[in-house]
Amino acid sequence: QKEVEQNSGPLSVPEGAIASLNCTYSDRVSQSFFWYRQYSGKSPELIMSIYSNGDKEDGRFTAQLNKASQYVSLLIRDSQPSDSATYLCAVSNDYKLSFGAGTTVTVRA
Amino acid sequence: KAGVTQTPRYLIKTRGQQVTLSCSPISGHRSVSWYQQTPGQGLQFLFEYFSETQRNKGNFPGRFSGRQFSNSRSEMNVSTLELGDSALYLCASSSAYGYTFGSGTRLTVV
To answer: What's the rounded Cα separation, in Å, for the pair B78 and B82?
Structure first.
């Protein structure tokens, strides 16, 4: 079983719609969770961090964490063409980040 | 505030050679970690350093090594390069607020 798994995608959404990304993790003791956005040819950019159960909102992004279900999600509201990228879920344990394979999102104008 | 600086940005090396990559973290950050990104394996953890001590190491062969200096700058070295070592090598500087990545070093082994 992989440490971090993401819905495989790719995900194509129309401009203005909500993009929903999901991630599960295997290590129950994990405490820190991150979503990164990576444009083609660029390095990952941190867009959300979440540490406690519930929702965390930042602009058009909402992260949700459910530690009992070992599940993290990211919602992108009012999707824009500039949101087209690969989104990586990451879990921090023992001074390292474990990443999912990423979900590629394409926002259609 | 300056970000994470990685040098060089691009490298082309021949099989069997060795290579050293450098990373300067965000000022004040004492933790530096390294990752390898390939299309097939995704992002994989190499090692992490804090105050010159390696606290964790990923599942890579001994050809991959690293170190951290007293000013928190870090280097990683890959000896006896193989074609499969071609990848984007990313350094991350971390604080209580999360991990910030540098622009990476694109290594091509020919």
So the answer is: 9
DSSP secondary structure code for residue A68 in this structure: T
> Rounded to an integer, what distance in angstroms lies between the CA atom of residue A77 and that of residue B37?
29
Chain A residues touching B50 at Cβ < 8 A: 95
Residue B59 CB burial class (10 angstroms; 0-12, 13-18, ≥19) = exposed
Separation between Cα atoms, residue A96 and residue A15, nearest integer Å: 35
What does the radius of gyration of chain A's CA atoms come to, in whole angstroms?
13
Judged by CB atoms closer than 8 Å, whether chains meet at B90 and A44 is answered as yes
What is the spatial distance between Cα B44 and Cα B37, in angstroms, rounded to a whole number?
Answer: 6
Read off the pLDDT band of B96 (50, 70, 90). Answer: confident
Within 8 A of A46 by CB-CB distance, chain B residues are 98-101
Q: What is the pLDDT of residues A9-57, one digit of tens each?
A: 899 999 999 999 999 999 988 889 999 999 999 999 999 999 999 999 9
Find the distance separating the first CA and the last CA of chain B, reported in whole Å: 37
Residue B54, by phi and psi: left (phi above 0), alpha (psi -120 to 50) or beta? beta
Give the closest-approach CA distance of B91 to chain A in angstroms.
Answer: 10
- pLDDT at residue number A32: 94
